[in-house]
Amino acid sequence: QAYCDAAALAATLQLDGTTAGITSAQAAVTNSVNKWNLNTTAVTSPTVTFSIAATGPWVSNPTPANGYLYTRVTATAPLPLYFLPVIVGKTTQNVTSSATAGQIDITSFPRGLVPFSAVTTTAVGPTFGFTIGKSYDIQWPQYNGTRGGCGPANPDKCFVSPPCADETNASKTAVVTNWQASNSGYWGASSNSIIRQEVLDLIQLQAVDVGTNMFPVLSNGTKASEAIYLDERASQDINTTDNTVSGYLANAHNGRRLIAVPFLNPVSTTSTPVVGYGLFFLMANGPGASNYYRRITNGNDPFCALYAGPYITGAGGPGAGGATGAARVKLVL
């Protein structure tokens, strides 16, 4: 049973909505070092199946793999019989164990998010309208409403520097209409030492729940130290050279360039609710220590990061994604 529990958890951490994730999940079970019979005998030929729901139906190789959040591992072992052979006439009895693990939606973060955000007008998970590998604002450029042509019909004219390359027009319009110069998507502290803890250690000034109105805690977020600490976090990764999500995930990495942020929907000048969460990939200019954000940004510029997919705690990459865009892995059966 311990083998099945551990293998199901390890496999479910690998699910990311792709067939490659299914392959990685199967490999996680095959490569499990747990044994049975007082940790002396390897488990052979476990069965690994996957499902969209905890109750099934279960399939071995789902194609396409999007939406598969659960793994079931079943193993059978021949248990030696020491006294019963006298009665039943056999020396072993097959014993079967099974475990099911799933990626379970997170709806509240007391800690674990960085003090930045991404803007969406699509309140449907798990991706909330974002495309993996594209560049979006986790903090918006300086707003200037007096620039010629500035307005909701032409939001690009309202920013001193251009927003990130793949930002949607709907999100830019929402920012121009409802945030203007008062907010940039930053919701952290103003003290440099606390900003460092927020970015590197993932402390938070408050819990961030789905449905929370973030408007009261948003600020314009123009502290120069933000870029310093984003670079410091990126430099803690063993991979500071790959600047595509696919390249980074395919090569050795430790996950420090991956950050989780809330998705915010600015619906009015006083309401900016959290609709979900997402995983973003920090840019770097290694090898070695990176100064990417310090080098390319000043007080007018945005902080851009690549959307990596749904967030999953404890994984080195994105998850498969549920309704909130964030999940934790746990045993369910």
User: What composes the largest sheet?
Assistant: 5 strands, mixed
Helix vs. strand class: alpha+beta
User: If helices are DSSP runs of H or I spanning 4 or more residues, what is the number of helices?
Assistant: 8
Helix content: 10-25%
Q: Give the overall pLDDT as a whole number.
A: 94
Shape: elongated
Strand content: 15-25%
Query: In sequence order, what are the helices and strands, one letter per element?
Result: HHEEEEHEEEEHHEHHEEHEEE
Question: Spatial order of the strands in the main sheet?
Answer: 3-4-5-14-13
User: CA-to-CA gap between the ends?
Assistant: 11 Å
The total strand number stands at 14
| Rg computed from alpha carbons, rounded to a whole number of angstroms | 24 Å
Q: What are the low-pLDDT stretches, counting only 5+ consecutive residues below 50?
A: none
Notes on the structure:
- It is a single chain.
- This protein is of the alpha+beta class and 333 residues long.
- Helix content is 21%, strand content 23%.
- The protein is built from eight helices and 14 strands.
- The chain has a five-stranded mixed beta sheet, with helices on one face. A five-stranded mixed beta sheet has the order 7-10-11-12-8.
- Helix 1 runs antiparallel to helix 2 (19-30) and helix 5 runs parallel beside helix 6 (225-235).
- The N and C termini lie close together (11 Å).
- 44% of the residues are buried.
- The mean pLDDT is 94.
